[in-house]
Amino acid sequence: MPDPNFSYSEDILQWIWEEQFFDLRRLKTSEGSEIQILDPGTLNKTDGPDFLNARIRIDGMLWVGAVELHLQAKGWEQHGHNHDEKYNQVVLHVVADNNPASVRRKDGGKIPTLNLLPFLNENLHHIIENIIGSNGLPCSSGVTFISEDAFQAQIEKANHEYLEKKTNDFLRFYNPYMVPSRAWKEALVLSLFDGFGITHNRVPMVKLGKWFLKQEVAEYSEESLIQMALQFAGFGTKKSDLKWNHKGVFPANHPKMRIPQVVRLAIRVLQTPTELFFDVPALTLWEKWENSAALSGSAKMKMLYGIVFVPAMFSLGSLFGVHAIKHKAVEEWKNLRTVVPSQFTKPFISQQHISPETYSHKLGVVHQVRAYCEPRRCHQCIVLKKVISS
Question: Are residues 205 and 71 in the same domain?
Fold first, then answer.
């Protein structure tokens, strides 16, 4: 069990080391040697020691090498580092253990040990305890003031990461074995079916999209394709293998209502000449499709424009090296204002000094809640770094 004075994860300990959230002025190893951290090193994301290329001065002698961290010193042998040549480069063992045992590398060298517990700021303990123990927004408990500048910077960071995520989501549907332009169009169609299935029926909607792409769209009228899709989905006289979830689905989001809408939109995507997508004004195609399919103005279409079409255009620019389109998609994403479900904005309302304009219409707030707040990744959030450093 970890020391009761530091009952947090090793990730938190790594974060404290990387950000140097401890008293750097009076550090001593467990052996009593004076120590200066000139560079904590770079976090290693592959096998081997936690931090590489650290620069540390111990009793006046400069050491350049790796740093390994454990909650308790015995983790060194428990993890077999004393038998692993990759750890022969370790020059410092960092722990949160008031009674650390000394450790040795495979080459027999004894490694100095630094116990961080005596050098941690009391406010850091308090903040981490409140974050871990909070039921709502992690930093809403025990943090009385959050810098709006830091919050805005974090939302912008989350906004950028969310574009990357949605682009990767789009590319899941991209078939590299097809002609690239056709593969991109089909990925867009499948992404739209997926989006129209949010949140309860994404899987059957994608299956329906794959069926739709096998049809000879040019041979049928729009209404015929809609009826065929409804039949395949089981909303006609024939049974279907598709499993729809109707529980908790609002009437407007029922598959029977969404299928005609997505079919109309998918038809327009497939019928649009490929060359039109490679012009910078291509983002305006969405509005034309909305109008001709009688779908304009709905909150669903505004959301899908953001989470599907803009990332699709960003991926198009990336795949084909059309930097103007890629740049335009990034700018559109940054300036996008759309309806964000209340469950993602509600946690921030308690911070009354932060203007709702900062987050209420930003898709990045969705990523912020899902990727940072809910999984308690506070140690990677700009907001907490600002709180601790101020």
Answer: no
